[in-house]
Every structure is written in structure tokens, then in C-alpha cells.
Amino acid sequence: MKKSIKIFLYSLSLVIIFIIAASYISYWSYSPELESTAVNDQNTSYFFENYEECRSEFINLSNQLKSQMEGVSIDSIRVESSIDTNLSIDFCFIPSVGDSSKLVVISSGVHGIEGYTGSAVQRMMMNEMIPEIQGNRPAILLIHGVNPYGFKYKRRVTENNVDLNRNSSLSNELYNIGNSGYADLYDFVNPANPASEDDFYNKFFYMVAIAKIAKSSMPVLRQAVLQGQYEFPEGLYFGGDRQEPQISALEDYLPMYFDKFKTILHIDLHTGYGEIGKLHLFANPVENDELKNYTTRVFEGLDIDWGDSDDFYTVSGDFCSFIGDLNPDATFISMPFEYGTLNSQKTFGSLHSIQKTILENQGIQHGYQNAKQEDKIKSSFIEMYYPSDPEWRSLVIEQSREVLNIAIQNYTEFK
Ligand SMILES: [Zn+2]
């Protein structure tokens, strides 16, 4: 071989080694940080570490509101389960003052583990905001812990591995929707060996992912994985083959609250997606200009993500649309709130997020390489959906207070 070719090949391999080493270090040292912010102890006091405490404090505050205000009603429905008899969805309904045509619905824990934050936000409202509203007030329905199994056992999904935000529909046609993009990526998102963060595949997971992104682009990949699938019960983002028990129960139960209202504003509380520490308003796509205008006015002055940016994806069977479909005659505005934890709008954040989600499901389906790995995988998953950082928690409550105050006031005043 000519000397010049040898030198060229030698330099090329050095460059490749350098690129691999640099990307490896930068992927594994990735750790998005919050801008330093003061912690307010009252804000952090709303966060608890187990489902029972969240639930019992929700019921205590419901009783407190009932003793302060006229017409408050409290209820609960048990969620069928083959492993736990103490799972329920709890409700607190606060009637309107003045205009009786409007209702606000705030739901938590559609993705079980995200319920810790959702519950904290609901209890902040019950403790501080609702008793303080002067003058007119729309009716308010708080729905606590839509997926109590996932809430209690710190998973996103139900005990049937179903993602409720892909399962909520009045029509069985949902469960026949195909997703060929997902089927193509099945092995990539559902590895079938015992889970370990430290095996060779996981150490270089980001490179496999980057190769897939290069082949199909990030938006296409994100859409295929996240939109939901109805074919693989053990796979990620499984939407089920029928309504989950609580969705059937809610279909029967909720109309008695809804029937008398002409306008419904639904806010569904989630965590995990988006910029760390930021409350994102991820609107569901709205075709109707009047409705879009109405939504913009309710959230006036706040950033709404309308789903036209690159990091957006659509889902089938989402809980907000289900609530809307229960009210075909009402003007229905919905706004999922997402409290970001990992900068998942950025490529590395997004890859870490999907990797942690894959490992969690892989562990449940196929076990773990050892107890240490089980511990690491579970705690890293919990940290992604329920960060322990007091600054993050404090910010969540602070932004919720501000945004919910604006939204409820605008909504009340809207004619
Ligand atoms: Zn969620």
C-alpha cells in the first residue's frame, strides 16, 4: 500500500475514534440543569412520596372545601384490579358562583407516576386558589389519580401495560388502528433480554438511535414510537385492545357532572416532556378557528405550543379528546400541561428519555441483569417523571399558580 494511503487511513481511524469518544462522553455526561432558583417551602410541601398520602390529603382538602363552601361534593370510584383492592379515582366538585354555564376540569395521573406532581398541583389549588376566588367562579371538577395503579407502583401505564393516553376512546375502532412505523422499530424499542443500563448495547444506544434518525428523521421516528400502538401488549406505548376499566367507569360516571354545562375547559396534568422546569402548554391540534381563538384568549399572554414545531407529535386515544367526546354539545377547550424534566425537546434529552422508558418496560417484561440494575433503572425512571430536586418542585407550583390563575380568570370573564 502506498505510504500516503496508509497515512490517510491512519488519520481517518483517529478521527473516527475521536468522534466516538467525544460523542460518548457528551452523551453520558448529559445532565440538564435548572437555572438556580429560590425554593419556597410552602410550594414543596405539596409533594409526597406515596400514593396513599397524596390521596388522603386530597380527600382531607376536599372535606375542608366542603365545610367552607356550599354544594361541594366528594366522590370516589374503585378501579378494578387483580393485584390491589385499594385503588380509586377520587373526585371533588365545587359548584359555580354566578354564571352557571361553565365548568373547569383538572385531571391528574392519567400516566400514573406523573400523578405525584398532578396531585400536588390540584392540592395547591384546593388549599390556596379555590377558597380565594372572589366573585364569580366557574364550577370546578378535580379528578385525582386516573391511573391509580401506575400512581401507586410508579409506572406510567396501567397494570395491563396500557398507556391510558392512547386508550381513551368511546369507539372500539381505536384498538384496530395500525402503526407500521412502530412495527418496524419494535426490536429497537423493546429489547427482549434482561435489562441493564451498563450493557454494551445501552452504552452505545445513542449511536444506534442516531443511525435510525439519520435514516428516517427525528420527527418521523418520534411520531412512529409515540403515537401509540395496538398490536404489542408488552411493548411501549400500548393502547390496549379495549377500554381499560377506569375509562369504561368514567364513561358511565362523568356525564352526570357534565350534562348541565355549555362550556368545558379541561386541563390534564403531565410531566416528563419538554424543557426542564418549564410548564409547557401543549395544545391538541384545533381545526376550528373560533375554538382556537377561544383557547388563545383563555391562555392570553402565555406560550401555547400548537403542534406545528418539529418536536411535536400526535397521539391516538388521548384522554382530553375522550373528555371532549363525552360532551359533543358543549364548547370544549382542552389543554394538556407538561412540566418538563429532561430537555426532551433536544436530541440528547429525547434519546435519554426514550432509553430510560425502554429500560423500565424491558425490566418489567424480561427482568433485570441484577438487583443493582433494577434499582438504577427504576430510580432513574422515577427521577425522570418525578424529579426530587426541590427547585424543580417549587417552580412547578409557582408556575401553576400563575398560569391557572390567569386561565381561570380569563375563562370566567369570557362571554
Ligand atoms: Zn404524561
Description:
This protein is an alpha/beta fold. It folds into two domains: about 1-30; about 40-180 and about 225-340 and about 385-415, Zn peptidases (Aminopeptidase, 3-Layer(aba) Sandwich). Helices cover about 45% and strands about 10% of the residues. It has helices at about 5-30, 40-45, 50-70, 115-130, 150, 180-190, 200-205, 205-215, 220-225, 245-255, 255-260, 290-300, 320-325, 345-365, 370-385, 390-415, and strands spanning about 75-80, 90-95, 100-105, 140-145, 265-270, 280, 305, 330-340. It has an eight-stranded mixed β-sheet with strand order 1-2-4-3-5-8-6-7, sandwiched between helices. It starts with a helix and ends with a helix. Bound molecules: zinc ion (ZN). Zinc ion (ZN) binds near residues 111, 114, 270 and 272.
